[in-house]
Amino acid sequence: MKDFCLQERGSSNSRIRTYQYIKDHNPSTRQEISKNLGLSYPTVANAVKVLVGNGLIVPSFNKQKTEGRSAVSYDFCSDTYCSIGLYLAQNKMTFVLADLRGEILDQKKVKAALNLRSDGYLKYVGEQLKAIVQKNNILPSNLLGVGIALPGLISRDGEYVQYGHTSDFTGVTKTEISKYIPYKTALLHDSDAGAFAELNKWPDMRDAFYISLSSSVGGALMLDRKIVHGQDNWCGEIGHMKLITDRNAGECYCGHRGCFDTVCRCGVLDVLTDGNIEEFFEILHAGDRAALGLWNTYTDHLAMGVHNIHMLLDIPVILGGYVGELMKEDLPELRKKINSLEPFNSNADDFVFCSRSGADQVAEGAALIQIRIFENEI
Ligand SMILES: [Zn+2]
């Protein structure tokens, strides 16, 4: 299911292509769509008629001149439907409400320890969702559904948690998690959700590797704008790539030592600021010696990890998660360290970037999933 959800553009369905064109080139005329998509005018006119009937586009009052004649243009209606993204992280839950463009209309964060086996926890999730729906006056018919991102691998069919590594929730099903959610739901691995939010912010990027630097380290490989999952669904799990071979290296929750996760999770940094990663960057930029020391070691390891990924894939690397979002002004220093490891004349300025989505990128990506499912079924 996930592969299907993550597809976008390039559809052979003329209605979906027309919809996507108007969304990307708002407003558009039927003549323009026909010419640029290579579809016959009657085909486009029929697609436009259906999209108008569904409330997804409306005729614009401003007629455009097209090849000497005036033509009606059509506006995209991004607020016809909305979607909710939910990130159930270790110690908090983040909710975002998004329109059809993925623009965030509302968001909320609540502290709560992740426990998918607790009925009380699941009930609380349902109550918080209901509060958002009521606050924003959303009719059930306008809500496409809820995307739920979790710090665990999701089965290929999207129906259960294949591996809930950071807490004990392996095997928990979508039906169980959705017990108090009276809407359509979809489960996602948090790394995939973050990568998906990034895809939305880089419309011209075909291939990239997304690294999530949050309370754990994860990743996602995106090829031709689709997330690759691999033979056993482990593709992109760089958190357990070995960066240190010293037998005294820190122990990972996977049972091994020296994993990427042990040296680049944000807890390595915010140990100085009582778990507050924003405050860590504040004292780092103010010149705190202890913070500078931790950051120097952290970026040594991060540079090694990014370099290895670049050598393997030769595609852009996007740094996301809490750290990736906050380290924008520190990126030049990291790029220098990566360049010192590169054997050829490649320049990290050309292939290492910080996330373009905000701090709620995982919840944003979760909301986008329901929108993509809808758009593939128009
Ligand atoms: Zn590990």
Automatic annotation (TrEMBL):
GO terms for biological process: D-xylose metabolic process. Keywords: Carbohydrate metabolism, Xylose metabolism. CDD domains: HTH_ARSR. The keyword Glycoprotein does not apply. It holds the Pfam family ROK. Belongs to the ROK (NagC/XylR) family. Transcriptional repressor of xylose-utilizing enzymes. This is ROK family transcriptional regulator.
